[in-house]
Amino acid sequence: MSVITPAIATARHKSWRFNMVGVLLSALVVSVLGTTTAQARTLDTAYGDVEVKGTPERVVTLYEGALDAAVAAGVKPLGAVTTRGGDNVATYTEAHLGEDRPAIMGVVREINIEAVLAQQPDLILAPAQLSDEQYQLLSHIAPTVVPPTQPLAPDNWKNEARLYGEALNRQAAIAEAIAAVEQRAAEVGQAVEEAGIAGSAFLVRWMPGGPMVMSQNLFATGLLAQAGLDVQDGGLVGERGVHSDVLSLENLSQVDGDWLFLATLNEDGQAALEAAKQSSAFTRLNVVEQERVIPVDGQLWTSANGPLAAQAILDDIEAALLP
Amino acid sequence: MTVPRFATLGVRRASPRTLMMLLLTALVAVSLVSLLIGAGSVGPGRVLALLSGTQDSEAHFIVWELRAPRTLIGILVGMALGVAGALLQAVARNPLAEPGLLGVSAGAAFAVALALVLGASAATLRISVAQLGALVGCVCVLSVARFRGVGNDPIRLVLAGAAFSGLLASLTSLILLYDQRAADEIRFWVIGSFAGRRLDDLLAVLPSMLVASVVVILIARPLAALALGERVASGLGHHPNLIRWLVVACVALLVGAATAIAGPIAFVGLVVPFVARAFAGPDIRRTLWFCLPIGPLIVLAADIISRVVVAPSELPLGVLTALCGAPVLIAVVRARRLPML
Amino acid sequence: MKTTSIKSTSMPFTHATRAALGGNDPVSPPQGYWRFAWRHQQGANSVLFEQRAVVVNLGLFGALLVASVIYLSLGSVKVAPTTVLKALVGNADMMATFVVQELRLPRLAAACFTGAAFALAGILMQTLARNRLATPGIIGIDNGATAFAVASIVGIGVSIAPPAMALAGATTAAVLTFGLAAGSGTQGYRFIVAGIGVGAVFGAVTQLLLARVAIDTANAAYPWTVGSLNARPSGALQLLMLGLALGLTTALALARSLTLLRFKDATASGLGVNVKRRRLEVLLLSVALTGLAVAVVGPVGMVGLIGPEIARSLSSSRGVPLLAATLAGALVMVLADLAGRTLLTPIEIPVGIVTAVVGGPWLLWILMRPQRSYT
């Protein structure tokens, strides 16, 4: 991937960039005058160093993790993309947003750049998968923060949240939110241990042909591990992969641990569990016979990201393991 | 009426009866192999031990609960796709007519996407949805392409199918743009597989397969007459248009049933009749008979390969048949004389 | 006395006559043609323009201009048409100028040039195959480009940018189809069916790739599977502009033999066309144009059917309406993307979906009409 430093704009865009930055800066200075001294921060993003000044007030998030981090840091974004399977933002963030719903900036597959412009943002928080061409346009509108792509690890969300928090000039609030998650995870882990619950666990998504085993390096599986379960992926997920290929039903015993978390993208997790139970290969697993299969919300567990999502997942874990 | 000379493969010297016996033996052998081999750890040795009376609950479960239903489904899907292909090619008088090329798979995929959006889950999806979609897709393309005149222009039907499939694929994409959940799930449906399909699924589509079989038996003779030309068929007291529409209905039922169970499986409907004609010659009735063992043979062989090449996972069958079937399609058109049916 | 020899020229709808020296009688043009004559030292020249073709092309061009202005003014940010014109010369306020110059103008250019290239490639292919339903997409080029671009995004193989990979994929598919159809010639359905086979393989590969990655990665690959004009690569666009300029010139130069290619091979040969060679040239041209366009926008094959169909319905059947098809393709693409951007704001519908949803039913209607001869 070619790394383009926004500071070195192409000749064609040069005058434009400076004009736009000038406009935005003057707007910014006016808006934050008297509240914060405008200090410039240099952020290390996927597209090189990006400079952000002051405390951005007009924020647009183009990624669910960014929305989560921004809301956790106390910012109500002006715009956000829709979540998967819905025409608005994810359900778990709605409680935190109250009445201030962000305007919709399109879907993550097709970001409406003009809608972003219409909000006249002073900061854009974008996903790591943003394409080069989209970055070129968005970075003309406002400083655009794209997290660097990291090798898959359970704690990736912390780095992303910190980056977004720094861009928002709310480093302390983000650090606090992350610390709160860590403390909560430790508490849940403690309670789980005291309840005498332990053992191996798998997180899978159930497809008609069999299960897909989710990586043990995911956000949600990391939290499960912190809660004291020995999360495994049976060596089925490759280095880069988020999930395995659909596992043959003949090899279902490979996910037969002490706990099975069954992620479904359906609203009714119980229905998906019933569907899985129609397969005799599934019902003969030990974990199923012992009724230690826990249906969870796939939208939250396999695709969300951020401090608020972490709290929501810990809620789920607590409810499932500590009745 | 030209005889497909290139397609004899030197096998026509043997009598049809002997050939049929050979094919049936091969089918039994492949079915056995299908029971013996899988993506799991239960290998041929353990299965043979099980069959000779050893107690082995793991092997027993895998052979009788997983591999046996799957083999049965493979046999029926192979028969359905093979016969449907032969019927379609006969009535369209076009050796390239293939259910998968004609929008049937696209219709089924569209219906599945629609159902997913309306709240179903891929795990709980009712099999009738895909079947309905396949039926509608098939009828649409065939009525659009219309049979009269197609005999002179084999490519017209293919192009109509391609255009129609493109339209349906775009409509599916439009739905998936809005619904990420459906987008996430349909990725796994469109690649076609027998894995995890249960006998209940088979029971759900068995009625339509049976109805189609009865109709095929009834129209085989008129169809053979139609192959001699419209006037000959009329002269013998048949109704060409009625025959055509019955064939369309049969094809839609058969392909719809197969697609509903296994997802889109490309090219089987093209390859099977091609091979069957090599065995049976130009007579449509004999070709149909030969499709019955050849279809399952090819589908089961592909399914067995799909189980072992990427164990412990499985390669989707639809991908495998597309990869293997396309060369056959190309071989058919590269043949010096394209058989006119 | 006058001796008149008629020479074929490189113009699509003209017949130039060179009058002998000293012949100064006015020559009345055939019915339905305009004749323009001029004199110079060596003698006199005259050019015949088919009235209908001139009107159609000018009309389409005018429509394209109007559509462009509307395209530049509508969207999530509204810009008045008068402001659009000001913004184009840099005379408007910051916001309007940014929207028009940076966001919409490159997108408009991408729409125009890809639409034009698809439609031109389409009408070339249709003339070649003598079938109104043939497009380069049907011989697997679109699928090849998609498979390669998706492979690049999901991170399989070398990390080349998706547009370059799309171009490589289109080339690979074309080469495979040519190779597999070799010996059976480039005529008729053997070639097309070989292409369908190649396309099916690439389609299966794409689906397999998409099923093996996480949904976020699959999302990033989405524009390459449906065709979208949102934030397109500028390098590929410049390449396309160059290719289209060359391609259109070449196509217009081949116009006369294209007209003859519509007839039976024997007839065309008899009229002095080297059928085999001309076919190969036209086919290569069509494939190259499609490959370049796909590298910009992804698979939007439907335009290759709609553009030529509009052009044919407007034009007389005297020649192959190359220029009209090119303009119509650009117009269709611009209108489709305009609709995609504005109909369901704030959600944008990718242009590939709009063309298919609108063009599909229309196409079916064409298919269901009683079959006419090719023209």
SSE blueprint and pairings:
The complex is a heterotrimer of chains A (323), B (341) and C (375).
Chain A: H1 11-32, E1 40-45, E2 48-53, E3 59-61, H2 64-72, E4 79-80, H3 91-97, E5 103-104, E6 106-107, E7 110-111, H4 113-118, E8 123-125, H5 132-141, E9 144-145, H6 156-167, H7 171-194, E10 200-207, E11 210-213, H8 219-226, E12 230-231, E13 259-264, H9 269-277, H10 280-283, H11 286-289, E14 293-297, H12 298-303, H13 307-321
Chain B: H1 16-36, H2 44-51, H3 57-92, H4 104-117, H5 127-145, H6 154-178, H7 180-189, H8 199-227, H9 230-235, H10 240-262, H11 268-280, H12 284-308, H13 317-334
Helix pairs in contact in B: 1-3, 1-12, 3-8, 3-10, 3-11, 3-12, 4-5, 4-6, 4-7, 5-6, 5-10, 6-7, 8-10, 11-12, 11-13
Chain C: E1 4-7, E2 16-19, E3 33-40, E4 43-50, H1 51-73, H2 81-88, H3 94-129, H4 141-153, H5 162-181, H6 188-212, H7 215-226, H8 234-253, H9 255-261, H10 265-270, H11 275-297, H12 303-314, H13 322-342, H14 351-368
Antiparallel strand pairs in C: 1-2, 2-4, 3-4
According to CATH, what is the class of chain C?
Mainly Alpha
**Secondary-structure-derived class of chain B:** mainly alpha
How much strand content do the residues of chain B show? under 5%
Q: Give me the CATH architecture of chain C, please.
A: Orthogonal Bundle
Whole-number total of structural domains of chain B: 1
The fraction of residues assigned to DSSP E strands of chain C is 5-15%
Let me know the largest β-sheet of chain C. Answer: 4 strands, antiparallel
Could you tell me the number of beta strands of chain B?
Answer: 0
Biggest interface, CB < 8 A: B-C, 48 and 53 residues
User: Quick one: CATH class of chain B?
Assistant: Mainly Alpha
End-to-end gap of chain B: 7 Å
Strand count, sense and closure of the main sheet of chain B? Answer: none
- Would you list the SSEs of chain B in sequence order as H and E? HHHHHHHHHHHHH
Total strands of chain C: 4
Mean pLDDT, all residues of chain C: 80
CATH superfamily of chain C: ABC transporter involved in vitamin B12 uptake, BtuC
Number of helices of chain C: 14
Unreliable residue runs of chain B: 1-11, 147-152
Query: CATH fold name of chain C, please?
Result: ABC transporter involved in vitamin B12 uptake, BtuC
Supply Rg of chain C: 22 Å
